[in-house]
């Protein structure tokens, strides 16, 4: 994505609407309700002032960076709204297990509420926020972070709930950390907050994806401008993400259930306009992971599958998908490190239980274009 706005140097109340809007799209349907996160961040900034933002390249070697966010099913988070105090308790519970003081906070993922909770946590803790995250989108599991590709471990990590319960976890590897933390989260009501992946400044610079907070802000501003100027927001989003419009249609079926601490399900769409007579199926695990047009894979993890309201351009989360809604589905390339063999082992289709190999969305879209079935945006 090419930014047309200056990188963030701080986050104040005026920045929140655009960040929430952009991160809701980048979150590929997951990461939690951005509106809830925006309220939490606004309250923290009102009480403690704007949050300074540090470029990833400016994080010093001797820094200690942690990522914070929420874990659980987005369907539960809509009703069981996290409190900012939960995030700061998660940070406080982790401090004694670390060799030196925490100096910076970063986002686990640039999606939904999980792009907002770190802002609130940084404001309350009086710490700078790093302009970076560990996914470049949203993924459902704790081991699915780019620092893991560099050998950074999730532990020690803390998980806390709204009732005052807290767990400090030291697991043998990141996958075990995910399984144990997920089991605890289920017992905590399928929604909790965490602090994890403590890393030195040099590790953060190598492992995190840079400038994604600024990317979300830029994307949100561009989408708002397109709406104000009565331009096609879907086309603007595709241009900003170097993506493709995969489908436009009406939601004709939705299956959704909270299983094992995740929101899992499937949505079916009947095509409208240029896609009349065709069908798209979306499968999700917190986030949209696979889009199939007429039973052919059109996009899959780790690439971004994003859904927007066809009329307003508002990003549609997996818990917000409704029968009868008219939506547009776009696909966009993931960060290049997710497309490496190591990245695909961690977040490719097979890691989600599918039996097909990953193919880049631009390759799949080009095949559709060559067949004169789909035009790029």
Strand-helix topology:
Layout: E1 10-11, H1 16-26, H2 34-48, E2 51-55, E3 64-72, H3 74-77, H4 84-94, E4 104-107, H5 117-125, E5 129-133, H6 146-149, E6 157-160, E7 166-169, H7 174-187, E8 191-200, H8 201-207, E9 209-210, H9 212-228, H10 233-241, E10 244-259, E11 262-271, E12 279-285, E13 287-293, E14 296-300, E15 304-309, E16 326-332, H11 341-347, H12 361-370
Parallel strand pairs: 2-5, 3-4, 4-5
Antiparallel strand pairs: 1-2, 3-8, 5-9, 6-7, 6-8, 10-11, 10-16, 11-12, 12-13, 13-14, 15-16
Helix pairs in contact: 1-2, 1-9, 2-5, 4-5, 9-10
Q: Mind explaining what this structure looks like?
A:
A hairpin with a 1-residue loop joins strand 12 and strand 13. The model has no long low-confidence stretch (mean pLDDT 93). Helix 1 packs antiparallel against helix 2 (34-48) and helix 2 (34-48) packs parallel to helix 5. 56% of the residues are buried. This protein is 31% helix and 27% strand. The chain has 377 residues and is of the alpha+beta class. It is globular. The strands form two sheets. Strands 1, 2, 3, 4, 5, 6, 7, 8 and 9 form a nine-stranded mixed sheet that branches. Strands 14-13-12-11-10-16-15 form a seven-stranded antiparallel sheet.
Task: Give keywords.
nine-stranded mixed sheet; 27% strand; 377 residues; alpha+beta; single chain; seven-stranded antiparallel sheet; 12 helices
Brief description of this entry?
The chain has helices at 16-26, 34-48, 74-77, 84-94, 117-125, 146-149, 174-187, 201-207, 212-228, 233-241, 341-347, 361-370; strands spanning 10-11, 51-55, 64-72, 104-107, 129-133, 157-160, 166-169, 191-200, 209-210, 244-259, 262-271, 279-285, 287-293, 296-300, 304-309, 326-332. The protein has 377 residues and is α+β, with helices and mostly antiparallel strands.
């Amino acid at each position: 994505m090419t930014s047309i706005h200056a990188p963030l140097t701080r986050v104040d109340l005026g920045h929140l609407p655009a960040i929430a809007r952009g991160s809701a799209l980048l979150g590929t349907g997951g990461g939690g309700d951005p509106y809830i996160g925006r309220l939490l961040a606004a309250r923290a900034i009102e009480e403690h002032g704007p949050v300074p933002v540090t470029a990833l390249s400016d994080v010093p070697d001797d820094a200690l960076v942690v990522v914070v966010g929420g874990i659980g099913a987005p369907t539960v988070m809509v009703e069981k709204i996290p409190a900012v105090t939960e995030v700061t308790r998660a940070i406080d519970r982790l401090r004694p297990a670390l060799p030196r003081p925490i100096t910076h906070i970063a986002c686990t993922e640039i999606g939904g509420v999980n792009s907002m909770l770190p802002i609130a946590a940084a404001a309350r803790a009086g710490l700078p926020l790093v302009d970076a995250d560990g996914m470049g989108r949203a993924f459902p599991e704790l081991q699915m972070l780019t620092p893991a590709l560099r050998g950074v471990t999730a532990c020690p990590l803390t998980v806390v709930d709204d009732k005052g319960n807290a767990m400090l976890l030291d697991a043998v590897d990141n996958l075990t950390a995910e399984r144990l933390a997920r089991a605890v989260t289920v017992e905590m009501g399928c929604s909790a907050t965490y602090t994890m992946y403590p890393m030195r400044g040099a590790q953060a610079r190598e492992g995190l994806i840079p400038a994604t907070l600024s990317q979300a802000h830029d994307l949100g501003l561009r989408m708002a401008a397109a709406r104000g100027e009565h331009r096609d927001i879907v086309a603007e989003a595709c241009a900003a993400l170097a993506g493709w419009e995969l489908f436009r249609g009406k939601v004709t079926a939705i299956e959704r259930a909270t299983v094992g601490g995740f929101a899992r399900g499937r949505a079916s769409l009947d095509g409208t306009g240029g896609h009349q007579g065709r069908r798209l199926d979306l499968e999700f695990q917190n986030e949209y992971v696979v889009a199939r047009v007429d039973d052919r894979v059109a996009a899959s993890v780790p690439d971004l599958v994003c859904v927007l309201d066809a009329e307003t351009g508002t990003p549609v989360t997996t818990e917000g998908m409704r029968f009868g809604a008219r939506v547009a589905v776009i696909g966009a390339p993931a960060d290049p490190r997710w497309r490496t063999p190591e990245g695909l082992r961690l977040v490719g289709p097979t890691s989600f239980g599918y039996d097909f190999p990953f193919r880049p969305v631009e390759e799949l879209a080009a095949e559709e274009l060559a067949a004169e079935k789909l035009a790029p945006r």
